[in-house]
Amino acid sequence: MPERAFSRRDTLSALLLPLAERELVVPDVAVAELIGYRQGVLVGATAPWDLGDISWRGRQVPLVSFEAACGQPLPRGERVRIAVMHGIGPRLPFFALLMQGIPRTYRVDSQLSYIDVPLASLELAAVLVGSEVARVPDLDGLAEAILSARLNAG
C-alpha cells in the first residue's frame, strides 16, 4: 500500500491541557482519562516534581507536575484536575499530569504555525492553536525522567 502524504484535509484531534502559566497541546489519544484531583501518596524520596502515586483503575500511577519537572515552581490552584497519560510501555504504562483547569478539544492540521519563544527543558516546540500559544511537551522525556527518579529513589 503506498504511503499517502499528509494533506490539508487531514486533522488531528488534540487536547489543550491548562497548566498554571501555559497550555500544553497533545494528541487526544495520548490521554487515557481526565479525572478530578486526588492527593498522591508519596513513595519515597523522589524528585520535587514527583507528587507520589494515585490510585487509578486498580493500579498505582505516578502523579507529576510538568511545570516543576521543567524547573518552575510547583503550581497551586483551585481548579486542579489530573490527566492520566499513556506511558512508554510496560515499565511505565501510565502516568498522571497535574493540570490547572479543564482541558479543551481542538482540531489541528498540517498548517500549524510554530512560534519562536523560549522553551522549557521538556518542551519540544511552541505552536499557535487558534489564537493561543501552546507548548508541545516531550512526553517520552517526561516518562523517562519519572522512571529515572523512581529508580534512583528506591
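(ticket continues) Second input and output from the same batch:
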Amino acid sequence: MQLFSLNQLFGQGAFQDTNILVIQKASLLKLTPHVTNKASALLAAILITALENFQGIIVDSNNQPITDSDNQPITYDNSEAFECLQMIGWKPFRFFRNNQPFINHQIIFTGYAPN
C-alpha cells in the first residue's frame, strides 16, 4: 500500500508547515481560479484532483486519450492501491438548473482509520 503526497491530493505546489496548508488553485483540476471561488467549488476541485490518482483515462503528452485496437480509451484503476483512502468516480454528466449549465461529478470517498 502507498501513502499519498500532498501534491497527489492537492495538486502541484501544495505545501504545509506546522500551522498552515497551502493549496495552489491553479493546480486543481476543473477549477478556474478566481478570488471569489466558493468553498463548494474548491472542495469539488480538490476531490476531482485527488480522483486522478485513483482512476481515469491514460493520455499522451498532448493530453489526448490513448486508445486500444477498438479505438476505446485505455483506463486505469488504482482504487485498491492506497492506504486509508479509496475514491471511485462516475462519468461526469451535464445538466441545466435555472437555464445555467452545470457538470455533475459523482465521487464515492471512503476513508479508513489506521490500526
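Agent notes: The mean pLDDT is 85. Strands lie at 15-16, 21-22, 55-57, 75-77, 85-89, 93-97, 100-104, 107-111. Closing as not reproducible unless the customer responds.
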